[in-house]
Amino acid sequence: MPRPKEFDPDTAAQEAMEAFWERGYNATSVNDLLAEMGLNRGSLYGTFGDKKQLFLAALDKYQDQNVAMIHEVLDQDGSARAAIEALLNLAIEKCTGDGAAKGCLAAKAALELAPHDKDVAAWLRRFHRRNTDLVARTISRGQERGEITRRIDARAAARFLLNGMAGLRLLGTIGMAENEPRDVVKMMLKVLD
Fold first, then answer.
1. What kind and span of H or E run contains 100?
2. Nearest 5 degrees, angle CA 180-CA 183-CA 187?
3. 70 near 91, Cβ under 8 Å?
4. Is 23 domain-assigned?
5. Where residue 67 sits, what CATH number does that domain have?
């Protein structure tokens, strides 16, 4: 009879996500992960497979949290344009507040692994497509209500805004004064006029 797991795989994936996010994939050893997660090798490999599968599980955890955050901001009643502005203001907080130096785990994965790892590249395409869908839906809602210009394609504008947000997270890793990303966000919002 198999022994029950003595740890929560969801918590373990969260701890792995934090470790990868802090150090990157290559700089995080299996020993680092075992120490961070409080697991032995058998538990790690039995639950997640290898280090790469654990990384993909950590990315899924990151995506779930990211999508929940975006939903929370964009799905509020009221103005779609105000919701987009609130999302961009949240990006300002992420790139200037506590933890700004960590950057974005998805961007780190894109830079470090996507050029030579088809699984990570595929995950990133799904991540980007999902976020694009959420933002584009809000832009379309704003266009229907007359809050956002109809001269733009909602999906193209969503990709533009998301790329700008990713750029802000990247710049946050080097430290920025709060007025710098605010200036960028003001320019980004002009695309909706």
1. none
2. 145
3. no
4. no
5. 1.10.357.10
Within a domain: residue 24?
A: no
Separation of first and last alpha carbons in the chain: 64
Residue 4 pLDDT > 50: no
User: What single letter denotes the amino acid at residue 189?
Assistant: L
Q: Residue 126 has which token pair?
A: 């799904």
Percentages (nearest 5) of helix, strand, coil residues in the chain: 75, 0, 25
Residue 2 binned pLDDT confidence (cut-offs 50, 70, 90): very low
Domain enclosing residue 167, as ranges: 59-192
Whether residue 141 lies inside any domain: the answer is yes
Angle, in degrees to the nearest 10, between helices 154-172 and 80-96: 20
* Residue the block writes with tokens 């933890």: 99
Task: Tell me which of 127 and 179 has the higher pLDDT.
Answer: 127
Amino acid identity, position 101: A
d(CA 118, CA 164): 25
Place of tokens 């740890």: 7
Sequence-distant (6+) residues with CB within 8 A of 28 are: 19, 20, 22
Instruction: Classify residue 31: in a domain, yes or no.
Output: no
Number of domains in the chain: 1
Closest-CA residue to 81 (of 180, 148, 30): 148
Summarize pLDDT for 47-66 with one digit per residue, the tens: 888 899 999 999 999 999 99
From 176, 72, 111, select the one nearest 185 (Cα to Cα).
176
